[in-house]
Amino acid sequence: MKQISGIYIYPVKSLGAISLEKATVSLYGLAFDRQWMVVDMKGMFLSQRKVPGMALISPQIQGGDLVLTHRDNSRDAVSTPLTGPEGEAKVTVQVWNDRVEARPCRKAINEWLSDHLGTYCQLVYLPDQNARPLSEKYGKAGEVTLFSDSCPLLIVGEASLQDLNSHLAEPVPMSRFRPNLVFSEGIAFEEDNWTNFRIGEVAFRGIRKCTRCKMVNTDQVTAQVYQEPLATLAQYRRDAQGIYFGLHASRALDQPDTTIRTGDVLKAH
After folding, report:
1. Is the pTM here over 0.90, yes or no?
2. In which region does residue 84 sit, left (phi positive, over 0), alpha (psi from -120 to 50) or beta (all else)?
3. Contact call for residues 245 and 191 (beta carbons, < 8 A)
């Protein structure tokens, strides 16, 4: 019996993860997931692809705030309201080919991030109403996402990671792949072919396999960059479109916002 064994959110795109026992799932994905993003002074998004040290900044949700700390000094922290920055200031930012209107966070947070990342940058927040529609290539009308690369959810099976690790000299943890949902049991890579699945009573749509880049080579604890596991994935998980690991998904459009929990039963169609 397949069950949800891990739930993760990444409040700030490309920063650290928060592991949860339960989360609210909506059309936008899991609550607070990738609702913030770090951009350069031109408004272009930054990620671990160019700034691996982003992995060392840890988010936490404390009361009504999103708190950021650096793993080298957990006492050095900055915070911003979960409801978004105060004031009406707006800024146009870019994530891949999409340009969206976001709200800039306060100057002190930008200075803190710039100091820790070694590059001038700013933190921005995307209100739900400014969510990005999914690409016409694979999205349905009404499907949206916030600052994720392409889709609101990413699900990976434990069996898929076990299969990959059987090909590696040194195994890698699931954190390298930054999933939102992890499930136990099942067959390696079976999620590739899911078109529909349910978690508890909630219906989801499997959208497309997740293409992978060099970011999976960044250790999420140390920010050190290696050659694996991407080199090995490329040997047996590749086609003309890319290297694959995990499945992009969204909550079905006709479902209400609801809570999912670790231990919930997963059934695929």
Report:
1. yes
2. left
3. no
> In whole angstroms, what is the distance from residue 37 CA to residue 45 CA?
7
Measure the CA–CA gap between 19 and 4, rounded to whole angstroms. 13
**Rg, the chain, Cα only:** 18
How many whole angstroms separate alpha carbon 69 and alpha carbon 230? 29
First to last CA, the chain: 14
Q: Which tokens hold the place of 24? A: 């609210």
- Structural domains in the chain plus CATH codes: 4-268 (2.40.33.20)
**Token pair 């898929």 is at which residue?**
160
Closest CA to 102 of 198, 193, 194, 13: 13
pLDDT per residue as tens digits for the range 110-146 = 999 999 999 999 999 999 999 999 999 999 999 999 9
Task: Report d(CA 103, CA 31) in Å as an integer.
Answer: 18
CB atoms within 10 A of CB 203: 15
